UniProtKB/TrEMBL annotation:
Top-level taxon of origin: Bacteria
Membrane-spanning residues: none
SUPFAM superfamilies per record: Radical SAM enzymes
CDD domains referenced in this protein's UniProt entry, alphabetically: Radical_SAM
PANTHER family: SLR0285 PROTEIN (PTHR43432)
Protein name: PA0069 family radical SAM protein
Alphabetized UniProt keyword annotations: Iron, Iron-sulfur, Metal-binding
Native organism: Sediminibacterium sp. KACHI17
Ranges of residues in domain Elp3/MiaA/NifB-like radical SAM core: 65-292
């Protein structure tokens, strides 16, 4: 992998593409044609916000959740493929560098969750934390909003599903142990590669695969139901690692798994293309064409039921691998439900739902 002298180390995106919602902004429209434009590698800033709501209904049938809550918008992890990048445009920022270094912090998230759960019409089903950006990204060490949200959920016996790639979750091991004892929590740890060069380029501010396996092991030993998320699988970059990842996750205590096939919707198409050709010029054309092969000649797809899995021979090959190793390494645990019957509001007796 080669890096230009102007390459922003520690960042995934290398520029800010146009925000489709903003009409007047100065950007690099054709980045390869401007030699005198350099992006400053500025520090991450936290923008504290008083949100109006924290729990969102999820309408997509592809993601396996009914509701989600995200204490942070934007993510310092900088994963180049992240579908959440596009959502940053709704806040008036770019899906590129802005997404990684302008983190919106919903300081009143715990209070909003408590208010939501106290509403008499809420009939509990699991809430995903997070369905968008990583709730244990570096901002969590400073603000501890995820911890506070979990404490509220534990108080109400509100079931929670979680996904993360950050070992910071181990700070909350004892709380998660307590919730697991009441069948209130299930966690997916995202692992995309054991290749450290690839990981550092693709997910620059994340922890190593070895550390993520440690998370699975420690939380599994604490009684938490643990799984592994292989997402996304990118043909020509990390798809050949699927077996190794699933085997290692199983050996460390994972009992279920999930995967996605790479898709590059909206501004992510520009960001990923720029990143791919800067980091892997020797195989960029091949990888780009393989991604297109998985989406009918495109790199993006918004169709429910297809967009997360892809289609065609390349996507089918990835799917068959997943099915095979899921069975081989016993990551196909029977469908398992979190317990919503324990839910109670403070001052109320427990109810059965």
């Amino acid at each position: 992998m080669e890096e230009e002298s102007s390459y922003l180390k520690g960042r995934g995106a290398q520029f800010n593409p146009r925000n489709r919602f903003l009409k007047n902004e100065r950007i690099r429209e054709h980045i390869e044609g401007i030699d005198d434009w350099t992006e400053p590698n500025v520090e991450t800033v936290y923008l504290e916000d008083q949100a109006k709501s924290i729990v969102n209904k999820v309408d997509s049938p592809d993601v396996g959740m009914w509701y989600s809550m995200n204490p942070y918008q934007g993510c310092e992890h900088g994963c180049i493929y992240c579908y959440a990048r596009n959502a940053h445009e709704y806040w008036g920022y770019s899906a590129g560098l802005d997404f990684e270094r302008k983190i919106i912090v919903k300081k009143n998230a715990p209070q909003l969750l408590r208010k939501f759960l106290m509403h008499k019409n809420w009939e509990p089903v699991p809430i995903s934390l997070s369905g968008n950006t990583d709730c244990y990204q570096p901002a969590e060490k400073k603000f501890r909003l995820t911890r506070q949200l979990l404490e509220v959920c534990n108080e109400f016996n509100q079931p929670v599903g979680m996904i993360t790639k950050n070992a910071g979750i181990l700070r909350d091991k004892e709380l998660l142990r307590e919730m697991a004892g009441k069948n209130l929590v299930s966690i997916l740890v995202s692992i995309t590669s054991f290749d450290e060069d690839l990981r550092r380029a693709m997910e620059p501010r994340t922890t190593t695969a070895k550390q993520r396996l440690r998370v699975i092991k420690e939380l599994s030993d604490a009684g938490v139901r643990m799984g592994v998320m292989l997402g996304p699988m990118i043909p020509g970059l990390n798809d050949h690692e699927m077996q190794r990842i699933m085997k290692a996750a199983s050996e460390h205590g994972a009992v279920f798994s999930a995967y996605t096939f790479i898709r590059l919707n909206g501004a992510i198409k520009l960001i990923f293309h720029d990143w791919l050709y800067k980091n892997f010029p020797d195989r960029a054309d091949k990888v780009w064409h393989l991604i297109q092969n998985g989406h009918g000649g495109q790199v993006n797809d918004s169709r429910y039921g297809v967009r997360m899995r892809g289609e065609g021979p390349i996507a089918d090959m990835v799917r068959q691998q997943f099915i095979k190793y899921n069975k081989l390494y016993q990551l196909n645990a029977e469908r398992w439900e979190l317990d919503a019957t324990r839910f109670r509001r403070p001052g109320e007796q427990g109810k059965l739902f």
